[in-house]
Amino acid sequence: MPKSTGPVPFLDPEKVAYWYFRLNGFLQIENFVVHPERRGSQRTDADLLGVRFRHRAEFLFDHRITMIDDKYLSLTRRFDDVAIVEVKRNQPCSLNGPWTDPDRRNVHRVLAAIGCISGENIEEAAGLIYEDGIAIFGRTRIRLFAVGRTASPDLAERHPEVLQLTWDHIIGFVWDRFRAYREQKRHVQQWDDSGRLLRQLADENDRAPFIFEAGRRMGLTREQGLTD
Predict the structure, then answer these.
(1) Which of 113, 143, 159, 194 could form a disulfide with 15 if both were Cys (CB 3.0 to 4.6 A apart)?
(2) H/E/C letters for each residue in 146-212?
(3) What is the pLDDT of residues 95-114, one digit of tens each?
């Protein structure tokens, strides 16, 4: 377990989630705001909105290197993936009302703003996402993701296709990626503060201490099972 007990730089949980999806090849917008059609306050926002194209290849000219993305995401060359991500810190994985209440029609607005499917398919796709958490149209797969401290049996029962990601899983994957591809991920000067800090902690710690230390800096509670 890390020895440091003094003040430490804080890790924003949404930034940690951002780096998890970035390391898996997603291009992202943070705090994607859904605006109303008429004057008034915003409808809602998605903590992260990401797109990953099916032909992604991080090392085009060196075929000796095959960077394996997280198998839990079931990424495939069959689909371009669109991720609508809801992030909770010390709560179980969950989805806010705007992503589960079809009367609000926020999923419709997000799909229109992204432009990943034609307008004539938005109504059907939004209905599928509200009902199941996933919609597939041709080569495009749109999914809801819930990030949280623990998995939620209730969410799994109501929306089994919504992919739940716990912090232990996310942080563990980040360590695995940095350690497996240490040389390829060596030049991080242009990364933001959170990315550089995660890389530094991965260099300084084995897997379990890294999960503990990153979780401590994110303000995760221990009583819910933080790895130590």
Answers:
(1) 194
(2) EEECCCCHHHHHHCCCCEEEEHHHHHHHHHHHHHHCCCCCCCCCCCCHHHHHHHHHHHHCCHHHHHH
(3) 987 888 888 889 999 999 99
pTM of the model: 0.89
Within 8 A by CB and 6+ apart from 124, the residues are 135
DSSP state of 70: P
Q: Which amino acid makes up residue 140?
A: T
> How many residues comprise the chain?
228
Of these ranges, 50-59, 101-110, 174-183, 201-210, the one predicted with the greatest mean pLDDT is 201-210
3-state helix, strand, coil in the chain (%, to 5): 40, 20, 45
Interaxial angle between packed helices 122-132 and 106-114, expressed in degrees from 0 to 180 and rounded to the nearest 10: 130
pLDDT at 225: 45
Is residue 44 very low, low, confident or very high in pLDDT (cuts 50, 70, 90)? low
Burial of 183 from C-beta contacts in 10 A (0-12 / 13-18 / 19+): exposed
* CA–CA gap between residue 67 and residue 24 (Å, rounded): 9
